[in-house]
Amino acid sequence: MTTLAPVFPAETVCRILRYSSPRDLVRWRAVSKWFCAITYDASIWRYLYTNSCLPRPPGPFPFQSTVYLEQALLRTERLARSWMTRPMRDVSLVELQVEQQPRGVIRLLSGRFLIGCESASRFVLHDVDANVEPHASQKQVIWEQQEQVLAWAATSIATEDGRFVMYVLLSERKLGIPRWRLLEFCFSGKSVKPCAVDTFDVPTSKFESYRVVLQKSGKSPFLHLSGCKLVFDMRTRVFYEFPKFFIALDETRHKTGTKPCFNISATPDRIVLTSTHIIALHRHFVPPFPGIVTTILQAFTVDGSSVRNGKGVLRLSHEGTSDHHFHHIALLRNSIVDPITESTNVRLLECVNYDHDLRVLWGDLTLSKPTGNDVLPITIVIHEKVEKKNAEKLQGYGTLPWDFDCSDAGLLRGYCRANFSEDPQYPSCLAKFTLDATQDECMLAVGEVLPPEWNHIKDPGHRIYGKDGKYMTNFDASGRFCLVRYSAVDDPNSNTEDRELVVVVDIE
C-alpha cells in the first residue's frame, strides 16, 4: 500500500476511487495520510452523488460543500442498509425557534431548507445545515412585500442545466382584487443565497385561496398550479391551461359506455408530471352502476404555437382507460424513450392500505410516437402486489397514512404509520417498505411492523402523529422529518412573542 502513492498519480487514484461506495471511501482514510487527503477530493464526491441510485436531496450544486455531499450520501446509504431491519429511530435533531406563521406552516425543501412566511408578508429561509457549510447563513429574508399573503405553497427543483431553483406560489389581494403570483428564486455559485429573483403574474381569473398547491415530480420541467388549474413550463416560462374536457377516441367511448360527459369528472382528479408529458386522470362513474368507477387517462404536451400573451393551451396527445380507480397516484419512474420504437414508457405508483394489508400497484403506461396532431391510445398494464406480513398488528387503526420518496431511477423508500393512539393496547407502529422499480418487474419488500425508538424527541406521540392537528410531519429523501409545533412559548406572563418550534430529525 505504501508504494501506491509514487506509482500512481493522484488523478488516476481519484478515478479509481469513484467506483467505491461512500462508506468504503471514508474507510480509505485509515490507510495513510496521502489516501486521507485524496478522499476529500471534491470531484470524487460530486461524481458519487451524481451517479447514486438511492433517494437523496437534489444536487450536486456549487453551494453544496464536499462535507455536505459526504454526509448526505452516508446518511442515505445507512438508511438503505438499516431501513428494513431496524425500527425507525432518531439519530440526531436540530431545533429552531421561528416566528409564528400566520399563513400556512413552515416547509422543508430538499432536506435542508426551511421556508416560512412571517407576518403574512415576508418569506424567510432557514438553512438547517448552516453549521457544515462555510458560505451559509442560518436565516435570511428572501422576499418581502406590502400586500398581505392569503395562502402560499413552495417547492424546489433541480433544473436540467444544473441550477437549484425554488418556487413560491402565493395568493394575495391588491386594491381589494385577488390575484396569484409565482416567485422564482435561483441559486448559483457557492453562496447559499438566491442570486436572482423573478416574479410572474399568473394569468387566471380563478381564485381558490384554500387550494394553493404547487406540484412537481422528479426532473419534470413542469409545475402544476392546482389552485389556478394551470401548468407552468420552467424552460420557456409559459403558463398553459388544460383544454375543455372531451373524449377523443371512439375506443374510450366504447369502454366507458357513455355518450354525454355528465358522469365524468371534467376537472382532473390527479395530475402526474413527467419529463415529457402531463398526465391527467379523470374519475368516471359507469352508468347505471354509480359504485363502479373507472379512470380515463389523458396525456398532454405543450404546444408553443398556441401561446398568446404568455399563456397557451396544452395539446391532448394520448388517451386511455383503466378499470382501476387511482386514489393516491404518484410518479414511480420517469419517462423512458425506446430508442427503436420511439415510444415513451412511464411508470405510476399507488400504495393503499386495504383490510390492514399493504397493497402496492404500479401501472406501466406506453405512449406511442406521436404522428401529427392525432390523439393516440395509451397502452396501460396494471400490476399489483399485496403484503400481508404482520397485518394483525395493524388491527384497529383504520386507514393508515403513508409517505415515501423515490429516486429518478425508480428506487423507493417509504413507510406506513398508524394513527396516534393513547390506548396502550395499540401502540403507535410503523411499517417500513422499499420498492425497486428499476427493472421490468418491481421488487417489493416490507419490514416488521414495529414501534419507533425515539431517543432525542420529547413527547413523540403527539409530535409525530399529529394529534388535534397541531403538528405536521414531512418526510424527505435524505431521511429527515420536519416536525412543527405551534405556540412554543406557553407562559402567559412571558413578553416573548409566540414562536413555533421546528424540529428537523435525522432518522434511520
Number of strands: 29
Radius of gyration: 24 Å
Q: Quick check: average pLDDT?
A: 77
- Give the end-to-end Cα distance, rounded to a whole number of Å: 35 Å
Strand % is 35-45%
Helix fraction, binned, reads 10-25%
Biggest beta-sheet profile: 8 strands, mixed
Which stretches are poorly predicted, pLDDT < 50 over at least 5 residues? 394-400, 460-472, 487-497
User: What is the global morphology?
Assistant: globular
Decide which structural class fits the backbone.
Answer: mainly beta
In what order do the strands lie side by side in the largest sheet? 14-15-16-18-22-21-20-19
What does this structure look like?
The protein is mainly beta and 508 residues long. 13% of the residues lie in helices and 41% in strands. It contains 8 helices and 29 strands. It has helices at residues 4-7, 10-17, 22-27, 33-38, 42-51, 66-82, 250-256, 460-465, and strands at 90-99, 107-109, 113-118, 122-127, 139-144, 149-158, 164-174, 177-187, 194-201, 214-215, 222-225, 230-233, 238-241, 270-273, 278-285, 293-301, 311-313, 315-322, 329-337, 344-354, 357-367, 376-387, 402-406, 411-417, 430-436, 443-450, 471-476, 480-485, 499-507. The strands form 6 sheets. It has an 8-stranded mixed sheet, with helices on one face. Strands 10-11-12-13-17 form a 5-stranded mixed sheet, with no helix packed on it. A hairpin with a 6-residue loop joins strand 8 and strand 9 (194-201). Helix 5 crosses helix 6. The longest helix has 17 residues, at 66-82. The chain is globular, with a radius of gyration of 24 Å.
